[in-house]
Each structure stands twice: as C-alpha cells, then as structure tokens.
Specification:
Layout: H1 7-27, H2 33-47, H3 50-53, H4 55-73, H5 77-123
Length: about 130
C-alpha cells in the first residue's frame, strides 16, 4: 500500500480549510471599540480582585457585558454598544471600590499597629510604666 499523500489532495484540503475559516470569520461580528473598552475595564477589575472587594458592581459589569455580547449576536449594534458602555462603567466602579476598600483595610491595619507600638512605648515591653 502506498500511504503517500498526493499534492492535489493537500492543495484541495488547504483550500477547503481556508474557505471554511473565512466563512466562520465573516459571520463573527467585529469587536467594536465599546467592547474593547469594556474588556479592558473588566480585566483591570479582575486584577484588582473586584469579585472579592466589590462584588455587586463587578457582577453587574459581567452581566452587562454578557448582555452586550448577546445583543451583538442578534445584530442589535446600538443596544450592544450601550450595554458594553454600561459594562465598562460598572467595571470601572468595581475597580475603584476594590482599590478604596483595600486601602481602607491597609489604613486600619496601620492604625492598629501604631496603637500597639504607642501602647508598648508608653507601658514598656513588660507592661510596666517606665
């Protein structure tokens, strides 16, 4: 048996592959600037751990982005862009709230450390006044 592949078969397979890929890419809607901005804002929110620190606006951003994608698939461009802008705004809010809450926690921790140091200085390490 000869298992070598003919050149004609390889060329026809390559052409069929590229035709299939081209038709799939033609059906996929192009990513609008609003979607790109929303994706960047969601990534930034994820980096700031917004799911943990600001779960409500983060979840609202995720929901709005999913809605925007669904509207885009339905070819409702203006509604999809509006939902993507909402997702971006919610993601920015989640990022800001996450940063604020993390900083507030750091401040509280520093205040506690400073109070403990002050107490140690005033009372001495053994708990007796100097």
């Amino acid at each position: 048996m000869d298992y070598r592949v003919s050149k004609r078969f390889v060329y026809l397979s390559a052409i069929a592959f590229f035709l299939a890929i081209t038709s799939v890419l033609a059906q996929t809607p192009a990513s609008a600037p609003a979607f790109a901005a929303a994706e960047r804002a969601l990534l930034e929110a994820e980096r700031e751990q917004a799911a943990q620190w600001a779960s409500e606006p983060y979840q609202a951003a995720r929901d709005a982005y999913a809605q925007a994608q669904a509207l885009q698939l339905k070819r409702k461009k203006s509604d999809a862009d509006r939902a993507a802008q909402t997702a971006e705004a919610q993601a920015v809010l989640a990022t800001t709230q996450a940063r604020q809450r993390k900083l507030a926690e750091q401040i509280e921790r520093k205040i506690s450390e400073n109070n403990a140091l002050r107490r140690d200085l005033l009372l001495g390490k053994g708990g007796d006044r100097p």
